[in-house]
Specification:
alpha+beta; Nucleoside Triphosphate Pyrophosphohydrolase; 9 strands; 22% helix; 39% strand; globular
């Protein structure tokens, strides 16, 4: 049986004792551009959360389909190649934008950007977050949540 790490939100993201948890299967998509040696990142405008691409897995989707869909919806990028499925983790947190406690089962993937072709990002996505590319060194100062930092460290450990 695989050991799945559990991360628990702290501070404003700490689970609220008076609220039940909603279970949610999600994806984390780490997208690497080999031409620039940079990683695709997001910053939510309402909370300041700094993350890789994340999103829910809908009932009719596989985790990989959800990951590809989320990258396109949130950033417009459409041509990705999957490198690998990364180690799973779980997360318990208070999700401020949703106003509820979530117990998240994260299904993370590492992708490589094939080219810069993009679809237009819908306005409802653009008002939620900004997307940009960071180098490995710049990511050291990026305030990734613990689960995302765990994933990024696992990638770095493989390339060293």
């Amino acid at each position: 049986m695989e050991d799945i790490p559990l991360f628990i939100g702290k501070g404003a993201d700490a689970p609220r004792k008076n609220l039940k948890f909603t279970r949610r299967k999600t994806i984390v998509a780490i997208v690497f551009d080999p031409k620039t040696n940079k990683y695709l990142c997001l910053r939510r405008k309402d909370t300041g959360w700094e993350t890789f691409v994340t999103g829910g897995i809908e009932k009719d989707q596989s985790a990989i389909e959800a990951a590809l869909t989320e990258v396109t919806q949130e950033t417009g990028y459409i041509n990705l190649r999957i490198i690998e499925e990364l180690p799973r983790y779980d997360l318990a947190l208070y999700h401020t934008p949703k106003g509820k406690n979530l117990f998240v089962q994260a299904h993370p993937f590492l992708f490589e950007l094939i080219d810069c072709e993009q679809k237009v990002v819908e306005e409802d996505e653009l008002v939620q977050h900004d997307y940009f590319w960071l180098t490995e060194d710049e990511l050291k100062d990026f305030k990734l949540p613990k689960g995302h930092r765990f994933l990024f460290n696992s990638i770095q450990n493989k390339t060293m």
